[in-house]
Every structure is written in structure tokens, then in C-alpha cells.
Amino acid sequence: MNYQVLLSLDLENNVTPIQRESFYKSLQQQGWEKIPDITTTWKFGSRHLDEISLAEQAKEKNADFLISVAQNCLKKAAQKSLIQKANYKASIFAGLGKIKTF
Questions:
Q1: pTM over 0.70
Q2: Per-residue burial over 51-80, b = 16 or more CB atoms within 10 Å of its CB, e = otherwise
Q3: Domains held by the chain: number
């Protein structure tokens, strides 16, 4: 069974459409998939860990590690799109199993 990460993301109203598009594109390039029909909700599975060094994976392949990876992905996306931390809010959950959408 693989770890999965669920991300709920809100970008503030002062974020421009161009910044928003850039932010989302950066998340997609980092292996995140938008969950269809659920606004600003994303998922990331441990199958994407091949982009993370093998040493890091061997050291700590668990939920806390994946949450740290998710936070770094958000920081990268914010930097790429020139969005300040104060202009986005996120909730992250990581655990074993499958994300079910209905």
C-alpha cells in the first residue's frame, strides 16, 4: 500500500489569474494531480518519490516526510509564481491507503 498526500489549497483574492495559473502549473510539474470536480484539492502519491533522492527515501518514507515534501512543493510553487506565504492557506494530510473521491 502506498502513502498518499491530500492537499486543500486556498489562494487569496489578491492573487492574480496569472499567478494562480503559474502556481498550479508548478504543482503539476512537481507531480501533483488536481482532483476533478473538487475546487483547489490536489493529491500526490508516493509513486512520485522517484524524484526525491534515494537516500532521503531510505531514511524516512512516512507520512511526516511526505508532509515535509508537500510543504516544499508549495514553497517552490509560491516562489515561481511570486505569491507571498500570507497569500495562500493549505491543509495537508498524508497516510496509507487510497484517496476516495465521490
A1: yes
A2: ebeeeeeeeeeebebbeebbeebbeebbeb
A3: 1
